[in-house]
Amino acid sequence: FILWECSTSRMELFKATLWIYKSACLKTVQLLRKNWGLIFAPLAYSLILSVAALLLGPFWLIGGVILWIVTAACASSGLYLIENVIRMGKATINDFKKGFTVYLGEILTIGFILWIPMMLLSRVAYATQEGALLVLAIKILAYVILNALPELIYQSRLSGLALLSGSYQFIVENWVEWLLPNLLIAAAGYLLAGLVSNLTYWMPYFVQFFVLSAAFGLFLTFLMLFRGVLFAELNGTTPRSRLYRYKANASK
């Protein structure tokens, strides 16, 4: 009887998790339909970065530092757009322009905090025979542990080192619920990228570039909106509270 009860409980938790995924996906599609112009934001950022790289290339170290700041500013703008869509249902061109400075400080701080240990690690690790594999393993581990950083930046009041510990805590508590759909969407995006490339290879270069850019923007926007919606659903909740919400919704 106890085993049957545990099995039933796990099945209900599984159904509750699927319900959260379904709700997050439907909300993401709804938000994307109302803000379809966002799919061109990645193209705008890539153009900005391309021009910045071209202009700053001759300045070596100083140019590299400024280019990193420009990259962080573009990331800040992107996060601010996603934040406005999730919180208020829409984003405007003014949000695009304003966003370049909203989270710039946080992103630069996180980048600096992570750059120091990774630089030291690389110098030590590459001096050993298995150094390259060690660095790769640590980078993969850091990617997993810090995977929720973008959402924490615009959905929490944390800053600096607290953002790193907050991401670690969130992943520890929700690693299955969070990482599984992200991996599935990434895999689907990889397959779709190959399909779109095969379908557009015969087109003129300009048309092909536009279609591929729009497809990439659509995928990236969907992914970031889905992550934001899912994070809001999971953060600060427990499996028990999610199960309660699922049952309450099912009883309506």
pLDDT average, as an integer? 89
What string, H for helix and E for strand, traces the elements in order? HHHHHHHHHH
Work out the oligomeric state of the chains in this entry: single chain
The counted number of beta strands is 0
Instruction: Detail the poorly predicted runs.
Output: 1-6
β-sheet strand percentage: under 5%
Main pleated-sheet profile: none
- What overall geometry do the principal axes of the alpha carbons give? globular
How many individual helices? 10
Return the structural class.
mainly alpha
N- and C-termini, Cα separation: 29 Å
Helicity, as a percent range: over 70%
What does this 3D model show about the protein?
With 252 residues, this protein is mostly helical. The protein is 85% helix and 0% strand. It contains ten helices and no strands. It has helices spanning 2-34, 41-56, 60-88, 93-102, 104-125, 131-145, 149-155, 161-200, 205-234, 239-250. Helix 8 (161-200) packs antiparallel against helix 9 (205-234). The protein is globular.
